[in-house]
Amino acid sequence: MARRRPPLVGLAVLLSVAASAVAKTDQPDVAALNVMFTSMNKPSELSGWKASGGDPCGDEDEWKGIECSDSSVTEINLSGLGLSGTLGYQLSSLKSVTKFDVSKNNFNGEIPYQLPPNVVQLNLQGNSFSGGVPYSISQMADLETLNLGKNHLSGQLTDMFSQLPKLSTLDLSFNRFSGNLPQSFQYLKKLKTLNLESNQFSGHIDVLAKLKLEDVNLKNNKFTGWIPKKLKDINSLETGGNPWSSGSAPPGMEKGSSEGSSNEEDDSGINGFAIGAMVITVLLAALILLSVLRRNHSSPVSSHYYMDESGRRDSSAIDMKPLEHSPSMGSRTPPAVPRKSISDNEFENKLNYSRRSTDPISLMNHSSSDLQAATGNFHSSRQLGQGTICRVFKAKYADGRVLAVKKLDPLSFSGSSDFMDTVNGISKLRHGNISELVGYCSEAGHYMLVYDYQRNGSLYEFLHLSDDYSRPLTWDTRVRIALGTARALEYLHGICSPPVIHKNVKSSNVLLDADLNPHLSDCGLAFFYEDTSESLGPGYSAPECTKPSAYVLKSDVYSFGVVMLELLTGRKPYDSSKPRMEQCLVKLVTSQLHDSDALEALADPDLRGLYPPKALSRFADVIALCVQSDPELRPSMSEVVQALLRCVHHKNSNW
Ligand SMILES: *[C@@H]1O[C@H](CO)[C@@H](O)[C@H](O)[C@H]1NC(C)=O
Ligand SMILES: *[C@@H]1O[C@H](CO)[C@@H](O)[C@H](O)[C@H]1NC(C)=O
Ligand SMILES: *[C@@H]1O[C@H](CO)[C@@H](O)[C@H](O)[C@H]1NC(C)=O
Ligand SMILES: *[C@@H]1O[C@H](CO)[C@@H](O)[C@H](O)[C@H]1NC(C)=O
Ligand SMILES: *[C@@H]1O[C@H](CO)[C@@H](O)[C@H](O)[C@H]1NC(C)=O
Ligand SMILES: *[C@@H]1O[C@H](CO)[C@@H](O)[C@H](O)[C@H]1NC(C)=O
């Protein structure tokens, strides 16, 4: 981490203050440049620069690459000077800097959270920066050009683009970004040039249809779906090297290019969500149609199954329970479709489309022979886990794709249409932090669910079963995992309509991908338990969950608070080896969450004290709110997300 404070700084600041009586330049600017110079290891290329004091805007010594206006530094251009090291942590003092260009050097580490706050042009291209895009950039209201291309940046973009009204050029090319384009792209009303070439972005690009782009490069990513017509009109459009959906776009997709207002409820403006909803509806319609045609409503009670998606080695984590029809899934209740209205006519349109289509959008109908081949004939060496009525296998394809296949016990099904109901319910839920159902197999005697394989297993394994090979999760990563999981629940609770109660939030259902981003599994598998407290992981269930009908959205919030508590303490939520009074983690530690000394003792020793104390106590505050016994008093998941965002914010500024 580059953020550790060098001891030199205090001294540097002191000296600069002492010099302020004679120097022309604003002292905070001088101090920031001093720290920057030191963090770059005082390169000789930077003539005039000093590690302490100096007067960059004065008449005497010219500092290379620095421009001033009166006593303030306004431009820093160190492009292509062969510099290395880091940028220091004090750039946020440079309040008058509008151009900041350190492109084509060899800076490394994470992009500092502290950047010149009023910058108009920010160019960090062609360095070795790693990590993600700091959230502080989302607050740069004057930003017009953001160039982060040709670095080693990774992870998903967060929804941080809603307050950048002037951004006209965004270049993220040649990095390792992944995941969907965030919905907040739709607010980039001035964006003209967008370069995402050679990353691993995936999902649809419908959100771009709302923008007035002139220059777009999407080459060599993993985008799917259709290219909106409006984009196709752009001459310079580059889309090669992506697995776009073939065939013509479904009707309704094309008209989405109407001038998008940012009004969320705008029916005509197509945003990603509306399209997501439509695509899902198409699929749904097809499936409902099929099941209506095929069966006659007389299925027995235990026709839905609960599957616990597990990651790698651990073979104990898969449990499966038969379940009754729950209010939030199944064809007999209104499906939980993201809350966007689709007119009947449009709906019929989709229905027409789906009748014509042979390839139902994105879910893959696998043949059992295909999955058999990919799993080495369901060989035991490929088995990832086992439950009472399913086994999970790792499927590998020649093209490098790896999938997790849940093979269900065929005897448990009364018929394929019931299975398709289950598929239905799960497939509707689409969010970057929800484990995605990508396919299924429905043949007589062969019922399987196919998910993306998450190579880093579950959070439970990471926290509680880690071996010598795995490094402990850093504080940053823990906050990120909490935030992503919170977003998944916010989606289920707030965006799906009717809301979906997860009912089984626990760390073994939080799967981690290669970048350690969380994917909540088991979504859409809500169900009734005969005995709730017994079925749900002990230690996670809220006090009100004494019977199935008592389960409410806020019960998920409680369970989520317990997951956060695991992240904070590194302890299991329930430990039967302990004396009875100490078995339940929540009961044991809740009283200590507001006491800062007790809190430090509570923090996971694996963190080795490497966390900002303020952020830790904010995190603990959120937990305390979530695990209150009165459900009414617990915050909503949206509030939790907001609170966690503040943790991210403060995490960085408190180093
Ligand atoms: C910085 O300097 C380089 C040449 O050294 C130039 O190409 C680039 O445009 C400058 N950046 C800004 C933001 O003015
Ligand atoms: C469904 O059941 C009804 C009577 O319960 C019967 O009239 C109808 O033909 C059945 N439909 C199919 C597709 O079997
Ligand atoms: C659906 O298709 C039928 C026949 O192909 C057509 O009569 C009907 O108008 C179509 N519905 C819509 C909404 O396009
Ligand atoms: C999926 O494919 C199988 C053949 O492999 C077929 O029997 C089944 O009807 C298909 N299911 C759907 C929903 O298209
Ligand atoms: C999923 O979680 C990660 C980690 O917090 C976050 O970066 C990403 O933006 C989230 N995805 C969505 C779609 O919110
Ligand atoms: C997560 O998985 C990736 C790919 O297998 C691996 O490179 C990485 O080291 C894993 N992360 C951790 C923290 O184990």
Automatic annotation (TrEMBL):
<feature type="domain" description="Protein kinase">
    <location>
        <begin position="378"/>
        <end position="645"/>
    </location>
</feature>
<dbReference type="InterPro" id="IPR013210">
    <property type="entry name" value="LRR_N_plant-typ"/>
</dbReference>
<dbReference type="GO" id="GO:0005524">
    <property type="term" value="F:ATP binding"/>
</dbReference>
<dbReference type="Pfam" id="PF07714">
    <property type="entry name" value="PK_Tyr_Ser-Thr"/>
</dbReference>
<dbReference type="Pfam" id="PF00560">
    <property type="entry name" value="LRR_1"/>
</dbReference>
<dbReference type="GO" id="GO:0016020">
    <property type="term" value="C:membrane"/>
</dbReference>
<dbReference type="InterPro" id="IPR001245">
    <property type="entry name" value="Ser-Thr/Tyr_kinase_cat_dom"/>
</dbReference>
<keyword id="KW-0433">Leucine-rich repeat</keyword>
<protein>
    <recommendedName>
        <fullName>Protein kinase domain-containing protein</fullName>
    </recommendedName>
</protein>
<keyword id="KW-0677">Repeat</keyword>
<dbReference type="Pfam" id="PF13855">
    <property type="entry name" value="LRR_8"/>
</dbReference>
<dbReference type="Pfam" id="PF08263">
    <property type="entry name" value="LRRNT_2"/>
</dbReference>
<feature type="region of interest" description="Disordered">
    <location>
        <begin position="238"/>
        <end position="267"/>
    </location>
</feature>
<feature type="region of interest" description="Disordered">
    <location>
        <begin position="301"/>
        <end position="344"/>
    </location>
</feature>
<keyword id="KW-0472">Membrane</keyword>
<keyword id="KW-0732">Signal</keyword>
<feature type="compositionally biased region" description="Basic and acidic residues">
    <location>
        <begin position="306"/>
        <end position="324"/>
    </location>
</feature>
<dbReference type="GO" id="GO:0033612">
    <property type="term" value="F:receptor serine/threonine kinase binding"/>
</dbReference>
<dbReference type="InterPro" id="IPR001611">
    <property type="entry name" value="Leu-rich_rpt"/>
</dbReference>
<keyword id="KW-0675">Receptor</keyword>
<keyword id="KW-0812">Transmembrane</keyword>
<keyword id="KW-0325">Glycoprotein</keyword>
<dbReference type="InterPro" id="IPR050647">
    <property type="entry name" value="Plant_LRR-RLKs"/>
</dbReference>
<feature type="compositionally biased region" description="Polar residues">
    <location>
        <begin position="238"/>
        <end position="248"/>
    </location>
</feature>
<dbReference type="GO" id="GO:0004672">
    <property type="term" value="F:protein kinase activity"/>
</dbReference>
<feature type="signal peptide">
    <location>
        <begin position="1"/>
        <end position="23"/>
    </location>
</feature>
<keyword id="KW-1133">Transmembrane helix</keyword>
<dbReference type="InterPro" id="IPR000719">
    <property type="entry name" value="Prot_kinase_dom"/>
</dbReference>
